[in-house]
Amino acid sequence: MNFEFLYPQAFWLLLPVALVVAVKNYRQSSSSLIASHLEKALRLQSDSKKSAQFWFTLLCLVLVTAIAGPSFETQTRPAFQSSSARVLVLDMSRSVYANDIKPSRLAQIKYKAQDLLPLITDGQTGLVAYAGDAYTLSPLTTDSATLGNLITNLSPEIMPFQGARADLAVKQAIDMMKQAGLSSGEIILFSDDLGQSELKAIEAMLSGHSWKLSVLALGTTGGAPITLPDGSLLTDKSGNTVVAKTHFTNLEQAAKVGRGHYTTYRSDNQDISSLIQTSDVTANLKKEGEQSVDIRVNNGYWLLPLVLVLLLPLFRKGVVFCSPLLAILFGFNSNNAEASIIDSAFNNQNQLGYQAFQDKNYESAKNLFSNKQWLAAAQYENGDYQQAIDNLQGESDISALYNLGNAYAQHGELVKAADMYQQVLNQQPNHADAKFNLNLVKDAMKQQQQQQQQQQQQQQQQQQQQQQQQQQQQQQQQQQQQQQQQQQQQQQQQQQNGGNGAKTSQQQSQSNANSSSKENSSGETAKPDSERAKNNSQPEHSDNNKESRNQQAKQPQEKDNTTKASTEKSASASSGEQQSQASEEQKQAQLAKETTQQNVDPDLRKLEQIESVRDPSYLLRAQMLLQSKNKEVPTSTGKDW
């Protein structure tokens, strides 16, 4: 039988007891001399004080010994330890937008994965999502809350490559467990379909190995159209609407090859229960349960009756300290000595704040905490990132620096967040979470720089377009002024030409009249015999003169009409040219806008519409984009429709 104290550090409590006794004895020895007739009367009082001091010293000694945890026996207990691991693989292809199961396949995949996490109490869990390629969203961890938050923000829209490659996701899960030093583990696949090529690749990876594959199949054989987030239906290359059907035979065959459990979607969560009951975690726990460990038993409770006996002499008048001792005695639990020491670091307000924090009532928790780090944690969870930053500034320990970096990142101050993560890595280079967050922040900073550059380029292009439009407007105004001046000059010339034509016609008519009179006079004097003939011919000649006069009178009118028509045609032509130029400018502006929109990456245009840092789905997409840069692009993405 081996005897030992479980908590030998408790004997340090005897030092203040010894100090109190020594001080009291010193005061008694240095007291002044008294008269002999009074010495007998006071001797009784001094004897009673000495006995009380003795009982008090003995009580403290027994009490401290009980606190120290004397142990002289051991107890055998089964060992429940699990080194197993599993990876959740979620299908994020566009077929999960189908709503043949309500509200949609995507929603049910996320619900089922989140329902599975609380049932996993041992081992480590990782997370992989796949579409046209597979990506690690979380390494193996025991933090189910973080995994649940990641699953909530998943959607096919944030996947870098569209398609369906479940075989690449299984390979990614196996590589993750191998990197953790494991030679066996379980893969739980949440999917709505599995192609023949994917099935063959999975069979090749799992055959001859100890990896286990379980499958939860979602969907129906009849299928449903794929409704995209913008409300439109997905169509194939021929323009036909795609109907996503689930091929259950391939999914069941994959589970058989992987020596795992196969189940289909059920609304009563029996599918999740069957998955967890057949999980490797339960099997490993049963195997570990066959082992046992020896645990020392705390026998300090046997000293409690002796403590009660030693307390009896203290129940006398004037013994004031018996109540605190009783409170210490009955409030003491030897099995929770370490916990009581830790809890004593918090006052009542902090304990209430911690309870509120555990209940996720962060608003009341931040009003109760007085500890700065706990207060900052409550403010962070409540979304008050600036207040969390103010409370964490000045702290130098690793956890405070890491939390300060998280608060900076959520507040949008990426440079300061990267600096905090770097300080954490300087103190602890193997801090995996700090490395992971630092990479995310750096990638987000790069995305922001690219967005700023694109915005600057767009602003420059818009300024150039505005300058070009202003120049074109000035040119149009100058052309209009020139056209107006030309029209005025043409009108003046036409008016001058019209006046000159009228004068010439009058002169011609007068000259004709004079010539006719001269001919008549000469004919009368020279040729009297031919008067009859001339007189007979005069009406015809006069008629010809009238016609010539009418023609001459019509000529200026026709000229005026032609000038008016020419001016109207020129005016209409100029207005038509202006309209055509304006329409051409509008077309050019539209083409310029379309070209600028085409030059911008559509993914980046979507990312500009959200708060890049505050949106968790953006961080997930940035994480997957970073992984896609570090590996080869898959030759085939599976379902491309």
From TrEMBL:
PROSITE patterns: TPR, TPR_REGION
SMART domains from the UniProt entry: TPR
Residue intervals of the VWFA domain: 87-192
UniProt KW Cell membrane keyword: no
Start-end of each TPR repeat: 398-431
Keyword Transmembrane helix on entry: yes
SUPFAM superfamilies for this protein: TPR-like, vWA-like
Low complexity: compositionally biased ranges: 505-522, 563-594
Ranges annotated as spanning the membrane: 6-23, 52-72
InterPro entries (UniProt xref): TPR-like_helical_dom_sf (IPR011990), TPR_2 (IPR013105), TPR_rpt (IPR019734), UPF0353/GerABKA_families (IPR050768), VWF_A (IPR002035), vWFA_dom_sf (IPR036465)
Name of the protein in its database record: VWFA domain-containing protein
Species: Vibrio mediterranei
